[in-house]
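Kindly review these tokens for lecture notes.

. . .
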Amino acid sequence: MRLALEQAARGLGRTAPNPPVGCVLVREGEVIGRGFHPRAGDSHAEVFALREAGERARGAAAYVTLEPCSHFGRTPPCADALVAAGVARVVVAALDPNPQVAGRGVRRLREAGIEVTVGVGEKEALRQQAGFRSLVTRGRPWVIYKYAMTLDGKVAAPGEGGGGVTSAEARARVMRWRDEQDALAVGVGTVLADDPRLTTRGVPGGRDPRPVIFDRRARTPAAARALRPGAVVVTSPQAQTAPLEGAGAVIVRAGTLPEALRELGALNVSTLLLEGGPTLAGAVLEAGLVDEVRALIAPKLLGAGLSPLGAPVRPMAGAAALRGVHTEPLGPDLLISGLLNDIPRLSAGGEP
């Protein structure tokens, strides 16, 4: 299953609105087929693995990070493909929350006499599929709030833009995160102060996430570097957006943040990396829409400066506490990550 999860990771940021999925076929202790889902509309992971294995798939065990689909979509059902190939056993990391599947794939396999095990590597698979699961069950992207700050909690010195807080190792990790997410969000204040490109740099085979600018009054300059084809500007229903539309921006009009995220979901944005300044980040957190936090802490003391969150002051008892906390050194810096919201899942019995 670890190999299957590694295969699935190759599709991160590239498969929306579909999930990243990996499959490995094993026969007599030997890996005979590997596959991952590269993009929506292309073959699923199981099909690629079965093609590589050929006739050797008969009697083999298939390890799949997501329950094989049981319905006709853009491609035929993968459960039927596994049955036709004659596999003897299927090990599934996590059940599919899509109502068209939701346990039906497992039942199809078992009805064909195939031994099925569910839940191996589920925690890791759920993390990989968080965006897909959020889109299917909530209609909005999985929101990851990322920020970098000094040891005394500052993201920038007074009068300076962002950047330069953390080490090269930490910045390289951020570029990898950008490569793995569908979209990258900032507020208009960041655009006006820094004119960022919002691109991925230094990742072999990397791709740029879709830029999303939250800009209630449509103040984004038409010449902003982030306004490449497909860029989204989220603004109010009343804002005048003709210059932005002329620059090729996709305009999303929303009165509230939940509505804005649902509109992004309708654009097949399943994961949103939030790198906005304190105003936007504070508003999204206060609305309960931050699902995951990735904080990079540099061993520096700045003194006066900008804090990462502009949310209203709350008592310590009301602080948002992360669950499943993970810590990792990145060069001289420290990454602290965890969840604020649960990843939607199904039980082994096919129940939410």
In short: The two ends are 23 Å apart (CA to CA).
